Records
---
Amino acid sequence: MDILSIISFLGFTLLVAFIAWYATRKTDEKSADGYYLGGRSLGAITIAGSLLLTNLSAEQIVGLNGQSFAQGILVMAWETLAAISMIVTAIYLLPKYMRSGITTIPQFVHERFDAQTKSILSILFLVAFGAVLLPTILYSGSLAFSTMFDLPETLGMSQSGVIWICVLSIGVIGSIYAIFGGLKAVAVSDLVNAIGLLIGGLLIPVFGLMLIGDGSVSDGLNELWTENPEKFNAKGEIDSFIPFSTIFTGMMIAQMYYWGTNQSILQRVFGAKSLADGQKGMILAGFVKFLIPIIVVLPGVIAWHIFGNDLVNPDQAYPALVKKVLPGAFLGFFAAVLFGAVLSSFNSLLNSSSTLFGIDLYRQYFNKNASELKMVKAGKLFGILLAIISMSIAPFIANAPDGLFSYIQESLGSLSVPILAVVAVGMATKNVPALAAKLVLTIGVLLYLVSQFVLSPYFIEAALSEAAINGITNVKELGIIKAKAYPHFLHIMGILFVLNVGFMLVMGKLYPNKNIYKPKVTEEIDVTPWKYAKIIGLAITILVLSTYLIF
C-alpha cells in the first residue's frame, strides 16, 4: 500500500469513528434501553444500514464470492431469498415482538414458556456467536486483508503471523465500539460503512468487467456471459453447494432463523423509534439485499474468468480480484470500507452477546436485584471475555472443504432449526408446554450434530469405498455418489424442523399448558404498522422470484 492508500484508509476509518461518537454523545449508555437499544431512537435508514452491515461482512463477501467462483451464481439464493424472509419478518413477526416491548428474543421465550427455556436459548445464542460466528468473521477478514494487500511480504512475516495481527487488531477495535459505545454507536457506524461498502463493492465488478471488456463494461459483461454460460445457471445440481431442491426445504428455514429470530439482527430493529420505522428499515434492507448479488456473487464469476484454475483456494478469489482490478487511488478507501464491514459484524454480535448475558442471564443467576447500571457493566465484562475467546479461536480456523460460507451455515444448522421451531410454535400456539420447548432446544441440537458428524461421514465413506472398489475415479461421478449417499445439510434442516414442530404440537395435545399464554402489550412503543408494508413487501417478493426464474 502506498502513502495515499494509507492516508485514505486512516481518514475514512477515523471519520466513521467521529460520526459514531458525535451521534451517540447524548445517549444515556448507563440505562439498559440506552446501551442495548440505543434509547429506542433508531430511524428506518439507520436500521436498514445496520442490518445490512451486520449481515454483510468479510465472511459473506469473501465466502459467497468464493462459492460463485467455484460453482457460479446458484449461490445467489442465499441473498435473493433473504429478501423474502425479511419481508415476512417485517410484516408478521415484528409487530408481535414490538407489541411486547422485548429487548431480546429469549425474553419472548420467557414470557411464552418459562425462565429455564429462556436460559437455554440464551446459552445457545452465545455458543453460536462465540464458537462459530465471531471467530469466523475475524478469520475471514484477516484472510482478506492478508491476500489483498500482500501483508506477509509487506511486513516480512509469515501468513499465520499476519493473521494473528489482523485478528487482534479487528478484535480490539471492534470491542471498543461494541462494549464502550452501545448499540447506537454500532448502528450509526454501520450506516456510514454501509454507504461506503455499497460504493466500494460496486466498483469491483465495474473495474473487473472493464478489464475483461478492454475498458467497456457492456463488452465485459457480454464476454463473461458467452464464455462462462455454466456459471450463470441458478439451478444447482445434486452435487452442488445448493441443489435446487434445498430452496424448498432447509434454505428458507435458515433464512427465517437468521432474519426472524436471530438476536444480533433483531436487536437493531427493536431499537426503532416505532414499529413503522422498524418495518420500513427492514423492508428497505430487503430491497437492497435483492441487489447485493452484484457485490457478493458477480465478482466471483469475474474472478473465475480472469484467474480460472490458477487459484487453489476459492476463498481467495475476491481478495485476488480486488488486488488486480482496483486502481491504487481506491485501494485505501476500499480497505477502510472492508475493515468497517468486518468491524460491523464483529461488534454487532459482541453487543448482542453483552445484551443476552446482561438481560437474560446476569439477573437470573448472578444478581437478582442488580440495578440497570450493574446489569450493563456485567454485560460489558462478558463482552470483553467473549472477544478474547473469539480472538483466541479465530487464527486456528482451517479452510472448510466447501468454503467458509458453507461452513458457517452448516455449523449453525444445529441451532437454527430448534430455535426457529420453538419461536414459531410459541408464537402460533398457546397450549404447548415449556417442557416441549426445552426438549427441542436440547435433543434437537443433538439430533443435528449426530446427523452431520456421525451418520453423514459414515454413509459417505461407505459409498466412496464402494466406488473405489468399482474403479470409479471421475471427480464428477464421485461428487454425485457422495451427494446421493446422504441428504444435503439443508434437507436435514428441513426434515428436523418438521420433526421438532410436530413433536411440540403433539406435546401440546398430550400435556397442554395449564397457564394459557396471554401476550403482553406495552404502551411504551408506538406499534402502529406502516400502511404500505404489505404492498411494497409483495412488490419486492415478486421482483425476487422473477429475477430468480430468469436464471
---
Amino acid sequence: MELINIKGIGPKTLELLNKVNIYTIDDLVRYYPYRYNIYTPSNILDASSDDTIVVTGTVTSNANVFYIRRGFNRLTFTFETNNINIKVVIFNRDFYKRLITIGKTISLIGKYDKLKNNFVCADIKFKPILKTEVEPVYHMVSGLSKATLIKSIDVAVNNSYINEIVPSNISSKYELMNTIDAIKEIHHPSDSKRLKDATIKLKYEELFEFMFKINLIKYKNQIFDDFVVKDISEEMIKKVLSYVPFDLTEDQLSTFNDIISDFKGIKRMNRLILGDVGSGKTIVSFLSILLNHECGYQSALLAPTEVLAEQHYKNFMDLFKKLNLNVALLVGSVSKKDKEDIYKRLEDGSIDVLIGTHAILEDKVVFNNLGLVITDEQHRFGVNQRNALKNKGMFVDVLYMSATPIPRTYALTIYGDMDISMIKQKPSGRKDIITEQYKFNDIKTVMDSIESQIKEGHQVYVIAPLIENDDEETNELNDLKKIKEILLQYLPKETKIDILHGKMKNVDKDSVMNNFKDGNSDILLSTTVVEVGVDVKNATVITIFNAERFGLATLHQLRGRVGRNSLQSYCYLLSDKDSDRLKVLCESNDGFYISEKDFELRGSGDLFGVRQSGDMVFKIANLQTDYKILLQCKKDTDVFIKENIENDFANYKYYSNILHCLMENN
C-alpha cells in the first residue's frame, strides 16, 4: 500500500509527511514519539508554586483575549476546582476562545500561584484527565496536525501487513511483545509498564535488524567454499613467542590468541586491532607475520606513509634479524631497478614479508602465496585500496590496526563487519604522560620546561592550529609563524627548529620527519599533520597551542607522540579557555576512557572524526543508553547466523537475498 492510498492522506498531507521524512508505510507507523508527557491529576490545595500540576474543574466565565503585539496574545478566564475560583492565563492560544464556555469541564496543566490566586497554563485539555495519562509528543512541521498524523498512523497499522523482524524463538525467549501491539502501544500508551515493554521490543527489533545486516555482511566477506585452514601447533606458537625478547601484556597475548583462532578457522580472518597509542599493536602484527610464515605463506604490511613504512621495516629487521627472513621494503622512493627486483622475487616466492606504502597496491605487485595482509592506520585507506591488496592472494587473512580508541558501543557499529580485539594495557616501563593546562600568561613556565628538556638532550613537539593566519590584526598565537617567533623569543638562539605542515610536498615532509627522528633538530613545530604512529623515543614534551580548538581524539593522538620510552614525558595544553575536553585529557591517559567521555560530550554523530556514509540514525534506539541491548543483539544475531546460515547453503542464499532487500530499502 502506498501512502497516498491511506484514507485521509491527500496530496497536501503527503507533502507535509515527506517534510518529516515519511515516504513509506513503514516510515509512517515507525514515526515514533520523541518523548511523552505524563499527566497525573493533582489537588490544587497541595501544590507549591514551583510545581507543574494537572487540575480538573469547571469554566466559570467566558474567555477574553488581549493582543499584546503581533504574534503574541494572552487568553484569560476563570475556573473552579476544589471550591476555589481562580484566574487562568494562557499565552498564544487565542484559538481556544470558542472552546472555553461556561460550565465546561476541562483540565489545566501549569503552575498555580496561591498568593495571587493565579494559574498560568502550559496547555489545556478539553477531554478531562481523571487518571494518569501518557501523551506522545512528535516532531511536527507547520501545517501538519498531531490529530492528522495519529489518524494516518492508525489507519496504516490497521490496514497494512507489518512484518515481525525478530525470529519467533528469540521473541519467546525474551517474552517480547509482538510488533503490531508494540507499535499500537507506542502511539497510544495504555500504561507505563506496557509502554516500557513496547519500547524495549521496538529498540531490540531495530538493533537486531542492524546487527543482522552487519554480521551477515561480515559472514559473506569471510566465507569460502574451500578455504585452506592453517595448520598451527602449540610448538609453533611457543617458537614464535620465543622470538620476542620481552614479555607481552595480557591484552597483547589475548589479541594474539584471537588471531591464532582466526588462522585455524574455516573463514577468512577479518580482524581489527583497536589499540591505544603506545599499547604495542605493532609487535602483535609482527608475531602474526612470523606465524603466517611458519605456515608457509607470504605476508604484506601496508602503511600510510614512507616514514611509517620505513619505521616498521627497521623495527622488524632489528627484532628478527637472526631469523633469516627475506624482508623487502617497497615505497615510492625505491629506484625502478630495485622495484623490478622486488617484483620478481615476490612472484617467485623468495620474499617472505613485504612492507610498504601504496606502492604495494600496484598491478605489478604479484605474490606467490600471500596468506596475510596487515593494514596499519586502516582509516587512511579506502575500501577499494584495502580490497586490492586482499585480492592479491587466494585465501588471504586480513588484519587491520588503528590507534584511534573508540567506545566499544561505537566500534560495534562502525567496524561491525570485523572482529575486534582491544589492547588497552601499555608495555611495562612506560610512564603516564603528565598533562597540564596553562594560560598564555604562564607561557614562560612552559618554555622553561622545554628548554630544560632540550638541555638534557631530549626533543620537543610544538603544535599549531593553523599554517598561517590571514587576519593580521589578531594577536592570537595560532599559526606557525607567530609560534616560531615566540619560541625564538624564549629559547636559546642555537635551538634547532624544523617546521612541518600539510601543504608541503610529501618528499619534503618525509625529509623533515626523518631529520627530527634522527635527532638533528630540537623542536618539530607542526600542524596536526605530524604522523600518527611515528616513534621518536627521544621526544619527551609536546606543547599544543590553542588546545581548545582540537577535539579530544586529536589531542590524545598528538599526546601519543611522546612517552614512547621509559623517560618521563609531558604534554602542555596552552589555552585561556576552560574546557571539559581539556579537563578530561588532564585527568587521564586512557584513550578508551577519553573516548567514552568524548562520546558523552559529543554523542555518536562524528565521534573521533570517523563519519560513515549513512551515519547511524536510529528511529527509537540510542547507542549511548541502549548499549546492553546492542550487545545482546550482536550475540543473538551471531548465534542465529551460525545456526541458520553457516550450516545450510540454501539458507545462506535466502538470507543473502533478504540482506540485499534490506540494503536496498536503506
